[in-house]
């Protein structure tokens, strides 16, 4: 299993929430986890509420039973960054360049020349039989 990247630490575990201090912004849908006795205990953040500078209250979709064993200052990792996932789903930036295409023939050759709107040109010659 992938534990992800360290993002902070757990300050407190409540009945159905965790209070955490982090170095990264957390959002609803993030996948978070802690290590308890060499076991990864993970959960999906259903609701994330900012409670102070770099502090959040996180309500998991389901509260793992072992999460109540977490002690204060236990390292917190994120193995799914919801904002990053959403950014990857968006259309990548596109760059369109106008190109003039000229196809000509000379003796036993085809000559293809392409020139961009900036004046950059390339020519390819194909010999015939």
Kindly list the characteristics that best describe this protein.
129 residues; mainly beta; Thrombin, subunit H; 2 domains; 6-stranded antiparallel β-barrel; 3-stranded antiparallel β-sheet; 1 helix; 9 strands; 6% helix; rod-shaped
Distance between the terminal alpha carbons, to the nearest Å? Answer: 60 Å
The number of helices is 1
Note the main sheet.
Answer: 6 strands, antiparallel, barrel
**Looking across the biggest beta sheet, what order are the strands in?**
1-2-5-4-3-6
Which helices and strands occur, and which strands form pairs?
Elements: E1 5-13, E2 18-22, E3 31-36, E4 39-52, E5 55-60, E6 74-80, H1 82-89, E7 99-106, E8 109-116, E9 121-127
Antiparallel strand pairs: 1-2, 1-6, 2-5, 3-4, 3-6, 4-5, 7-8, 8-9
Textual characterization of the structure:
This protein is mostly beta strands and 129 residues long. The protein has two domains: 5-89, Thrombin, subunit H, CATH 2.40.10; 95-129, no CATH class. Helices cover 6% and strands 54% of the residues. It is built from one helix and nine strands; from the N terminus they run ββββββαβββ. The chain has one helix at 82-89; strands at 5-13, 18-22, 31-36, 39-52, 55-60, 74-80, 99-106, 109-116, 121-127. A six-stranded antiparallel beta barrel has the order 1-2-5-4-3-6. Strands 7-8-9 form a three-stranded antiparallel sheet, with no helix packed on it. A hairpin with a 4-residue loop joins strand 1 and strand 2. The longest helix has 8 residues, at 82-89. It is rod-shaped. The termini are far apart.
């Amino acid at each position: 299993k992938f534990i992800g990247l360290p993002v902070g630490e757990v300050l407190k575990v409540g009945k159905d929430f965790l209070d955490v201090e982090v170095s990264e912004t957390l959002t609803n849908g993030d996948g978070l986890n802690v290590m308890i006795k060499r076991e990864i205990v993970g959960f999906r953040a259903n609701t994330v509420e900012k409670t102070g500078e770099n502090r959040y209250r996180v309500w998991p979709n389901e509260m793992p039973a072992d999460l109540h064993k977490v002690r204060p200052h236990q390292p917190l990792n994120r193995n799914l960054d919801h904002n990053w996932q959403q950014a990857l789903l968006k259309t990548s930036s596109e760059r369109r360049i106008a190109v003039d295409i000229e196809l000509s023939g000379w003796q036993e050759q085809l000559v293809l020349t392409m020139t961009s709107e900036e004046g950059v040109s390339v020519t390819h010659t194909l010999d015939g039989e």
